[in-house]
Amino acid sequence: SSSNLDIKKEGNGKNSKNSSPKKSNNKLQTKKITRKRKNETSEISTPNPENKENINNKEEPSPKKAKIERKKKEPKQKTTKNKGPVDVERQCGVPLPNGGFCARSLTCKTHSMGAKRSVLGRSAPYDQLLAAYQRKNQAKIGAAAAAAQQAKDDLVHGAGVALDDEEETQQVLAGVRRNYAVPLERNVLIPVRMRTGYLRMREMFASSLLPRLQNNPLGKMYARAAVMNVENIGESPFFPVRSQHQKNNQQRQNMKQSQNMMQMQMQMQMQKQGQVQAHMQAQIQAQIQAQMQAQEKTQIPHQPQIPRNNNIDNLETGGRNPNKGLNISTLSSQQQQQQQQQQMLMMGQKLMNSETERLITDPVPGITATPHEDNLRYFDVSLTGPAGSPYENGVFKLELYLPDDYPMTAPKVRFLTRIYHPNIDRLGRICLDVLKNNWSPALQIRTILLSIQALLSSPNPDDPLANEVAQEWKGNHDKAITTAKEWTQLYAKDD
């Protein structure tokens, strides 16, 4: 140590270049001292005599400071954290090459969807867990956004915000500007000449857009003050009207042509309808004449021809010639019968058309009847079994035919679907008094179909058409009901 002190003294008077090795020696000595203190050895190296006073004058550090200094000087030991198991309900969980598992969230971008879906141990599919996780995050984001928006609203409206005098005045002025009173509208007075010019211009534009004011489908166009007729307007200093009149003439011609075409089409349709009606009337008259001729052959005996007498031929009808008067009277009666039959046929046709239209537009609940395209007298009927009966939930097909002398005679109805019923036989014929003796022209197709539906709900084994079914119905009612239900399920299924 004494040699070190001598070197130090000698070095104080020399250049700075020669002082560098001495300083390094001092540093080495201080390092040795610190190492000895750390190891708590008894041997302590003596410092330089110049630094003795400084060392003795230093105060001992407090334990907290010493601990902090010790932590700073000591090197940090690297500790490996023991990672726990991966929560596959919240984390990715895909196996890694190092034998571990991915600990990122369910929205991991490193691994594919297929790899994340194939992870085992999840309580629900990956897609459901991901959707729940995203909903939760979205709810958090939404709540944060709502809170931020509420803070902005509070800041705008001044709720819970301490304002200075200047800010308060600005807020008040902004509110006054927002709620500034708008003055009411006032009608501007326009001179009469200028107003008429405006009205003419308006009517000119209207006439150019619409084909004609008088034939406008929306009605006549009225101005605010008066009705203007474009045809009677002459030359005006504001605008020329002749060009518009030319366009109106062209539009009128086009309208007339279109109207003529419509009339021609209507006439053609009426002619076609008239031809069809005339053809039908001719057929009806031919049938009536054939029937009348057959009746004449059977009723009127053959009379010998009477020699003609010119004097008798000149007599008036119904005069002294008895044979001639008799022939004319018989012809008049035949014509009356033909007219009556024609009237009855026309009435029956009208009635049939009205009933068909009503059946289509206002059908009976549980019953549908559609006429044939080839013959409107044939109807395809589908009838639903009434509730509470053995035919419930069954759909039965029927055939209905209106005869030529309908409504004077009852329509013909029969079942096409097999049914186990005492009043309906195997051929589908129906035993119903309305279709036989109790028929009236006042009845309609609707009443017939409703009567058949009521017959299904309440069979009448006392007036049977299928005797075996009626005996079963009376003798063993429960068995008959079960058979009817089985037949309904077997044959009357709703396709």
TrEMBL record:
Transmembrane segments: none annotated. The keyword ATP-binding applies. Residues 13-27 have a biased composition (Low complexity). Residues 1-12, 50-63 have a biased composition (Basic and acidic residues). Residues 29-38, 64-81 have a biased composition (Basic residues). Keywords: ATP-binding, Nucleotide-binding, Transferase, Ubl conjugation pathway. The active site is at C431. InterPro entries: SCA7_dom, SGF73, UBC, UBQ-conjugating_AS, UBQ-conjugating_enzyme/RWD. Residues 1-91, 293-342 are annotated as: Disordered. Its EC number is 2.3.2.23. It is an enzyme of class 2 (transferase). Residues 347-493 form the UBC core domain. Residues 300-314, 324-333 have a biased composition (Polar residues). GO terms for molecular function: ATP binding; ubiquitin conjugating enzyme activity. This is E2 ubiquitin-conjugating enzyme. The lineage of its organism: Eukaryota, Fungi, Dikarya, Ascomycota, Saccharomycotina.
